[in-house]
Specification:
The protein contains 8 helices and 15 strands. It has 361 residues and is an alpha+beta fold. The protein is globular, with a radius of gyration of 21 Å.
Length: 361
């Protein structure tokens, strides 16, 4: 953990506890799903405190328990939404001003803290150390909170005014985001099909094809989601291998559609019919393996700060690497083409208040 003090933490400690609880519930679901095929039951993973308190009894066990890899793509968004509800609730209860040691006010020039109460706070992007003085590039700062390997990671992204995180994905992951202050313009997409273009032929694997095949199986919904995700993971690895510098013989693309509704996001259309989606403090939003998995953020005129919880964290060796995309509108929605990380985008870790540096970052 990279938080030096939990005094008056605005509820961050409760978020830690909820994340641990939700992880254990998710692992219970994973263990149940895997045991149905393997014929061996496995207890859900426990929190670190539970593990330490029962280390003696654990060491006495004669039969080793095989670990279960978390693959959330086999569960629907509806099931995952119910499971992560306690974590969403604890993030909604956060006192962002206390967490960031800020004094709320009614200054219309500040960043929104609570739009319903008319409260704002001064943004902190220029108070994070080490200072970043190049105001002409697209740099987002990151304050690390906590990470438990293969369980979850938690941190705060701090956006200067107009800064953005480009379009990217979260393979087989659930991500919950709480806007601490400010507002963000959001683009959110769900994958409809995957297209792999090769030299002389195109393979288009869509929901209808997979659904027809899956109807012959009693586990068709899980097979459908897992098939799409497996292809998508392969696509990510293919694009970002060889240090990103080789020309790719196979150019993969994703056919996606915009989410019609996003938790916590206000959606409207201008006079030209262009869609606008704004996520403002103190709202919480979430994405899932099969819903809204690709998204981008652009901060408003006063910047923004967002607390993110990733379940599980990015891990290249577990096929959970981050892929950036370029979106192009077509007759079926949007086509996403994998690209290298945009050259003008940087995410720099730093220190602010109770958030200190970590050896692993």
């Amino acid at each position: 953990m990279c938080v030096s003090s939990m005094d008056n933490d605005g509820g961050l400690q409760q978020v830690f506890a909820s994340a641990d609880l939700v992880y254990n519930q998710l692992m219970g679901m994973e263990a149940s799903a895997s045991s149905s095929g393997a014929g061996v039951k496995r207890k859900p993973s426990r929190s670190l405190s539970e593990a330490e308190s029962s280390s003696a009894s654990a060491s006495a066990m004669k039969t080793p328990i095989k670990s279960t890899k978390m693959n959330l793509s086999q569960h629907s968004a509806a099931v995952l939404r119910r499971t992560i509800a306690p974590l969403i609730h604890s993030m909604q209860q956060i006192d962002a001003a206390a967490l960031l040691s800020l004094n709320p006010n009614h200054d219309s020039n500040g960043a929104t803290l609570d739009q319903n109460k008319g409260l704002s706070v001064p943004p902190i992007h220029d108070r994070i150390t080490p200072y970043h003085r190049n105001s002409h590039d697209n740099t987002v700062r990151y304050l690390h909170c906590k990470e438990i390997h293969d369980h979850f990671s938690m941190g705060i992204f701090v956006f200067p005014p107009g800064a953005s995180i480009p379009l990217h994905d979260h393979p087989s992951m659930v991500v919950i985001s709480r806007v601490l202050y400010g507002e963000l313009h959001v683009k959110s997409y769900s994958v409809v099909s995957t297209i792999i273009e090769e030299e002389d032929h195109i393979m288009d694997i869509d929901d209808d094809v997979l659904h027809n095949e899956a109807q012959h199986s009693e586990t068709s919904p899980s097979r459908l989601r897992t098939s799409i995700n497996r292809i998508k993971d392969f696509v990510s690895r293919a694009v970002y291998s060889s240090h990103h510098d080789d020309k790719i013989a196979t150019q993969p693309k994703l056919q996606v559609e915009e989410n019609p509704s996003i938790l916590g996001v206000q959606i409207s259309k201008d006079k030209d019919g262009e869609r606008s989606a704004i996520l403002s403090a103190p709202n919480v939003t979430a994405l899932y393996p099969d819903e809204g998995n690709c998204h981008s953020f652009v901060a408003g005129p006063n910047g923004a700060a967002v607390l993110d919880v990733l379940l599980p964290p990015y891990a290249e060796d577990e096929d959970r690497d981050c892929t950036f995309y370029e979106a192009v509108k077509n007759e079926n929605g949007y086509c996403l083409t994998p690209i290298d990380q945009p050259s003008d985008f940087n995410c720099l870790s730093g220190e602010y208040g109770r958030f200190t540096s970590c050896e692993q970052y």
